[in-house]
Amino acid sequence: MRTLARRLAKGALFLFSLTGIPYLFYGLLYYVVGPEGSPANKQDAEPTVSIVLPTYNEERIIENKLDDIYALDYPMEKVEIVIVDSSDDSTRDIIRDWFERRDAPTLNLIEEDERRGLAPALNDAYTAAKNEMVVKTDCDSKIASDALRVAAANLADPHVSAVTGRNADVLGGSGVEEGYRGIQATIQTLESHLDSTLIFHGPFSAFENDEIVPIDPDSIADDTELALLIRRNGKRVVFDPDIRYKEASHSAFSKRRTQKDRRAMGLIRLLAQHRDALGRYGMYGSVVLPFNWWFMLVSPWLLASGIALTTLVGLLVAGPFGLVVPVALGAFTFFGSRDRLGSLQPLYALFDTQVSLFSAAVKLLRGEGSAIWEVDEELRDQYE
Ligand code: GDP
Ligand code: MN
């Protein structure tokens, strides 16, 4: 019994250490590279801009979103807004009213008869977008007023063809999300300095129009997929922490699962579809993609197995008292999801992400992963 427990304990320790090795490696790289801000050679630029805005039943918040765009520090004569709308509420009427009252920006409204999902809608909007810089933004987000200028400055670098920004303020005050976004911003800054980053964010992603290609209509990681395709075609795609936006998020465990699990499914599927990119495209394929493979596809399983083994060891050694392992994990989740872990909060945020990635993988294996989802109404309270 004891020897078995000792062996299993060693196994668990091995799994936990193995999980951590790539993270240590990234930490070391960060120390060596010392990345700061965007790696692009930024230059002042004022290209014409197409803002792509997909909408599905956003009648509560669409007007505020348009007002926010209008308030951006950018000449609105140089801006067209391409809205692709699949609503069956009053979103369209509100949009038409809003544009009737203004000369600029101009509106290109693509009306869908029925909801087909976000990726096909975006493909149509990107095809319709005429201007030099195309900025995709979600309705449920707020963009900082200088974001278009900072994005244009990045794209002025001839090697850079896409840029995304950071969630600088998590609306609704979710500490879990804030903890995670901080870690993610650090990782994405490093990746951008190495070559290019993987994840592009729904609230703000800017692309050079010439580089845009169609994405898979079934994609649920649309922005990231477009960036990945652009990188595969030869141009860098980077993260600039000076491009700021705000997006609402939950902390509560069950509320987080719906959106995070779906986003995780999209990313896992995308990485798997593009497995042939591993090892190619310089540091992007040899460092950035493998790290994301580890984080998203490998380490959730190693952690889950490690936790299962540790629980088993506890039961073998201490009988029912061995349940202390799952109970402790439960307490960690209980306090973490209520933003009450103090300095351990970022660690919980990482754990929360690993939970999503694990359950996303399970859902994908079960054949879930529809490209049409229920829009989170509660999150939209923050934008009214
Ligand atoms: P999440 O932030 O990943 O949870 O995704 P959201 O549910 O907030 O959707 C992102 C954006 O896409 C929002 O502006 C939605 O209104 C819009 N959207 C979602 N599904 C569809 C769709 O099927 N068609 C269109 N045209 N827009 C959609
Ligand atoms: Mn959203």
Please tell me about this protein's structure.
By secondary structure, this protein is an alpha/beta fold. The protein has one domain: Alpha-Beta Complex (Spore Coat Polysaccharide Biosynthesis Protein SpsA, Chain A), CATH 3.90.550.10. The chain is built from eleven helices and eight strands. The chain has helices at residues 2-33, 62-70, 91-100, 118-128, 147-155, 175-194, 222-232, 253-273, 282-318, 324-336, 345-365; strands at residues 49-55, 79-85, 106-111, 133-136, 142-143, 160-171, 205-208, 236-248. An eight-stranded mixed sheet has the order 3-2-1-4-7-6-8-5, sandwiched between helices. α1 crosses α6 (175-194) and α8 packs across α9 (282-318). 44% of the residues are buried. Manganese (II) ion (MN) is lined by residues 138, 140.
Order of helices and strands: HEHEHEHEEHEHEHEHHHH
Output mean pLDDT.
95
Span of the ends, CA to CA: 61 Å
CATH topology group: Spore Coat Polysaccharide Biosynthesis Protein SpsA, Chain A
CATH class: Alpha Beta
Molecular shape: globular
Structural domains: how many:
1
Into which percent range does the helicity of residues fall?
40-55%
What ligands are attached or bound here?
guanosine-5'-diphosphate, manganese (II) ion
